[in-house]
DNA sequence: AAGTGGTCTAGACCACTTA
DNA sequence: AAGTGGTCTAGACCACTTA
């Protein structure tokens, strides 16, 4: 009654099955950010197991940053608009303000269209899916700081089509609306081409730092973004320890 | 008798104290890679607690990649020369061979010296410490692939002074000899200067990808390295999920 | 005062792996 | 056959937090 697994995951241990159940509830959005998850006592009854077993699961989810544990009032699905380590890394506003500079951004371009053949392959999409394509320029102290070129999979995030992105930049908006599962990064240095040099106000051929990131929810691509920074003045930093489970992950 | 904590960490729970004890044993090198750690039964007696408590600790250490659990023969400190996710990320040989190219490297320069004032600050060193400075060029398919400029803190790794680095490049050699605690990265794009363009056989001013990494063991800097890649042809990639405790960390 | 999570116990049975 | 880790139980006491 509690589990809805169709796949015959017979070899999973009890706490692994419970973990997967709850993870699914969160990642599909059935339990949205802020949702109060059942208490350990309730989960114990629901899964007809001991409290230690569900405690292990919820503790693990908390360490992974998916839930927030609180006494007396109970645990909730992590509100993704809170100041998580992940948000700090993904929000260019934080980067800029950490440098002590004023931040603003504007949307330069916005198009809804079908995926090209290359995009169907790269994003694992069928040709019937529609994409929202955004170009966004981020400023630090009034100067161009980062060019963001983004594709959003509208079959995963249909609300994006009617969103203006005037209040919140696409990155943080997505973090608030779509729980994600996995991310992949690619980092490279390139010479600025014509368009990039104009957007970022750097000479053509100047070194720029390229960060490409693709993000999934379960098996579907949520978004792919390409961030271009003037290379000489900007740097990404990250710190981590191998012995902690969740920390500012990598970059 | 089992613990040697001097600091009054009174607020730590029992399993946190045990975790810290074992972590210290590993990170200081008292328990070197491959060392067979006490069985859960032995730890249970040593700390006069239940098996669940030590099991929780060792499971956590295994998830963090510090120990390798094996039935019957017992758990051991993670052999850092094995194919761990961390090693794959840190070993340029892996990068090159993943591209299907032949790999080799050579040491271009090797100097033992005192730290400059700037280095004393950056590495938190006193002026009496000595540093080993290495320049190393990595090749892929016979072509220059990456320039490595490294400083090694000889007070943490005295064995490095007599090491030739002929068999093993400095990065993997350090991974085998020094357990580390924390790492910090800085990534940027730059234009190749005179020396770099010669080393890497790229035009002066061409975009290069710069990765700077500093690594600590407990509170001491182990090494600082600056890796320079021809930017146009190379890219770093990384993949991670927020719900797993240890994975190819960020980058 | 009462609900919740944090931690710990003292057992148990089993699977896996090597001797 | 025997040692080890993997998992789970059914309790317990407590700290914290809000009602």
UniProtKB/TrEMBL annotation, chains A, B:
It holds the Pfam family GntR. Gene3D superfamilies: Chorismate lyase-like (3.40.1410.10), Winged helix-like DNA-binding domain superfamily/Winged helix DNA-binding domain (1.10.10.10). CDD domains: WHTH_GntR. SUPFAM superfamilies: Chorismate lyase-like, Winged helix' DNA-binding domain. Residues 12-80 form the HTH gntR-type domain. The keyword Electron transport does not apply. Keywords: DNA-binding, Transcription, Transcription regulation. InterPro entries: Bact_HTH_transcr_reg, Chorismate_lyase_/UTRA_dom_sf, His_ut_repres, Tscrpt_reg_HTH_GntR, UTRA, WH-like_DNA-bd_sf, WH_DNA-bd_sf. This is Histidine utilization repressor.
């Amino acid at each position: 009654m509690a589990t809805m697994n169709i796949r015959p995951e017979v070899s999973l241990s009890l706490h692994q099955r419970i973990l997967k159940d709850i993870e699914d509830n969160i990642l599909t959005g059935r339990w949205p950010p802020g949702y109060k998850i059942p208490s350990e006592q309730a989960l114990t009854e629901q899964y007809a197991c001991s409290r230690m077993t569900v405690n292990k699961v919820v503790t693990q989810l908390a360490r992974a940053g998916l839930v927030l544990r609180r006494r007396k009032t109970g645990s909730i699905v992590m509100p993704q608009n809170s100041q998580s380590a992940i948000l700090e890394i993904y929000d260019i506003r934080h980067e800029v303000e950490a440098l002590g500079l004023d931040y603003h951004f504007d949307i330069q371009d916005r198009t809804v269209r079908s995926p090209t053949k290359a995009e169907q392959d790269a994003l694992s999409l069928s040709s019937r899916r529609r994409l929202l394509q955004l170009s966004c320029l981020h400023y630090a102290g009034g100067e161009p700081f980062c060019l963001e070129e983004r594709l959003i999979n509208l079959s995963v995030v249909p609300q994006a089509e009617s969103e203006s992105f005037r209040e919140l930049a696409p990155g943080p908006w997505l973090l608030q609306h779509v729980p994600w599962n996995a991310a992949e990064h690619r980092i490279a240095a390139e010479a600025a081409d014509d368009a990039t040099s104009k957007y970022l106000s750097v000479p053509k051929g100047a070194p720029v730092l390229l960060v490409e990131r693709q993000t999934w929810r379960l098996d579907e691509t949520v978004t792919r973004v390409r961030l271009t920074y003037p290379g000489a003045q900007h740097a990404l930093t990250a710190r981590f320890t191998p012995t902690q489970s969740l920390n500012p992950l990598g970059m």
